[in-house]
Design goal:
single chain, alpha+beta, two-stranded antiparallel sheet, 2 helices
């Protein structure tokens, strides 16, 4: 498996790696990729559909964590020269939101793949903002097929 260390910040390229389309895109950079781990980022904009009262909402954070997993899967398929599959959140075992970040802030989410079998991926995620963990989750994503 490839280990990826160069940041990808081209929003058009990122858009090809995930099935979500604007205005529902909640990742805008791929910061790290390796087997069983991915780190994605998002700069929160005022125009984001999950921004309310100058803050990024809890549903936005959860969607950002899920799209971090989608980015992991999409980049895997890109490396195999295949199109990114569509996936869904199958279950959220745990989601903790400690703080809602403000517009203009940068999110950095790390997803550790705990299990990945037959299109079902169980992950643990942590989202940081300004070097502080603001959210964590354990969720299951499922590929549509």
């Amino acid at each position: 498996m490839n280990v990826f260390t160069k940041k990808i910040t081209d929003k058009d390229f990122i858009g090809k790696l995930i099935p979500q389309k604007a205005p529902f895109v909640m990742v805008d950079k791929l910061l790290h990729f390796e087997e069983k781990k991915v780190v994605a980022g998002l700069t929160i904009s005022e125009e984001n559909i999950f921004t309310e009262n100058n803050k990024f909402t809890a549903p936005g954070l959860i969607e950002h964590m899920a799209q971090t997993v989608a980015l992991y899967t999409g980049y895997q398929f890109f490396l195999k020269e295949e199109e990114a599959p569509i996936g869904y959140i199958g279950a959220i075992k745990k989601a903790e939101i400690f703080e809602l970040p403000a517009v203009g802030k940068e999110l950095k989410t790390t997803a550790i793949i705990l299990h990945d079998i037959m299109g079902v991926t169980l992950v643990a995620t942590e989202t940081e903002c300004d070097g502080k963990i603001i959210a964590a989750s354990e969720m299951k994503t499922v590929l549509a097929n």
